[in-house]
Amino acid sequence: MAGSTSRVAALGLVALLTQGCVTGHFFDAARRREQPLTIEEAILQQDRLVLDYGALVTDDLGRPLGREERRVAIALADLRRGDLPPDAWPLERLASDETVPGRRLALASGAEPSPPAPFLRVEARPDGRPLRLVLHETAGAADPPLAANALTRSRTEPWVYAVLPLSLPLDAVVDSVGFVFLPVWLVVGD
Amino acid sequence: MGGIAARAWLAIVLPVLLAGGCAAALPPHAPPHPPFRFRDDVFAFSNQTLWLYRVDPSTGKFAGTPRQDPPDFAFRCAGMARAARQFFEAARFDPAAPGLDEAGYERLVREVLATDPRKPPAERIVIPGQRDLRDFSTRHEELLKTLLPGAAPSYLQRGNWRMIYPFGARHQAALAGRLLDELARGWTPIVHVLRFPERSINHFVLVYRADETPEEIRFEVYDPNSESEAVTLAYDRASHTFSYPRTRYFVGGGVKAYEVYDGWLY
Q: What is the mean pLDDT of chain A?
């Protein structure tokens, strides 16, 4: 019985580690991404910038599923660095329904003349979605641009965890069958 | 016995499957040659799709219908991407040299297509009397269409085993970095672009250039379905996802990608 349990656990572990076919595709189906669609408001606080934005919710392949209102805070010290890749920004996710104190900034599009500083310039992609955000803290002094896709958020719908007891054993079978045929495929394949 | 079998299974399957998710061996350095140019280094004809696609005005959805006359040159995307790489890596066009008759060109094309698509050859095969692949394939379209591999490389591509497994963000990020490295080394990676288990795209393209911005990497690719313009396979640095633009056969949007004709597993 103990041996049987350990074998089942081992197979489950293998299926997890190898991102098995069935489990992995369930996770893909449960993945949601939120990408900035519009910048609604920018609020400058003492040491951070708070952004309100509309986010397009998509599935794993980018098909639209809806829209959410989101709010993040970005430390000004990080904004001034200018060397962070878009997937490494330390963003603080905030509830979007609370009042935020601070100075509301004017938003300027890429082509508009500059309003009095401080303001936030929003450069857009050809399809209108924000591409880069540039904070002008004082007149003539712009912080390095923030890639708007740094606001992208990924999450996994919780239902996927309910199907794991079904998918992991299936993966153990699928992976085993795949392994048997893999050498043949490698020999006959181009 | 059951325990031994399980341990053996684990010992063999685990490393292979884990290796399957990782990058294969890097290709050797290519001999120096000019960079790949879409204008010159692709076939003058394209792979044809079995279906015709259009936006359905009643639903707004992208839909396909079978062609009335089945195309005579279809299912060739893998073979064409593979052959474009072979001509780029293994052939050298010499327009100043005297041209050959059809039999002479046939022999040279067979030689080029017999080279290993996974690594550059030690020496290039000279194709006299032709300026470049586009020029050659314009003048000798029927010869090339006859000699290019059929549908087999698309269906039996060695790396196809990988397509059923999911591609996570880490895999896609590693692929983007790897494509950049290979392009910097003068190599032209071939990528399988897909949406498995969906079948809306299942395609092979050759990557020949990359433009980097802080937000994304835009890989210019030779799509065998389009001889007239390059296509951009875009990689988003934040979400670690690839996207393929709308084409005459694909609605456009997110795709998964992995490199093929690369190492013994792919």
A: 89
CB contact under 8 A, A33 and B195: no
Which tokens go with B153? 């490389």
Contact B16 A182 (CB under 8 A): yes
State pTM to two decimals. Answer: 0.86
Q: Which ipTM was obtained for this model?
A: 0.84
Tokens 């325990």, residue located: B3
Domain limits for position A75: 2-188
Report the distance separating Cα A127 and Cα B235, nearest Å. Answer: 17
Q: Which residues of chain A have pLDDT under 70?
A: 1-4, 7-19
Contact call for A189 and B168, based on CB within 8 A? no
Q: A123: Cβ–Cβ under 8 A, 6 or more apart, which residues?
A: A109, A110, A130, A131, A132, A133, A134, A145
- Please give the Cα distance from B135 to B105 (Å, whole number): 13
Nearest Cβ partner for B161 among A14, A33, A182: A182
Q: Residue A189 is nearest to which of B6, B16, B156, comparing CB atoms?
A: B156
Q: Which residues contact A39 (CB under 8 A, 6 or more apart)?
A: A51, A52, A53, A107, A120, A122, A130, A133, A148
A149–B12: do the CB atoms touch at under 8 Å?
A: no
Total domains present in chain A: 1
Closest Cα to residue B44, out of B140, B155, B176?
B140
User: What pLDDT digit, counting tens, does each position of B134-143 carry?
Assistant: 999 999 999 9
Note the pLDDT of residue A78: 93
Q: Are B179 and B259 in contact (CB under 8 A)?
A: yes
Using CA atoms, how far apart are residues B94 and A107, in angstroms rounded to an integer?
58
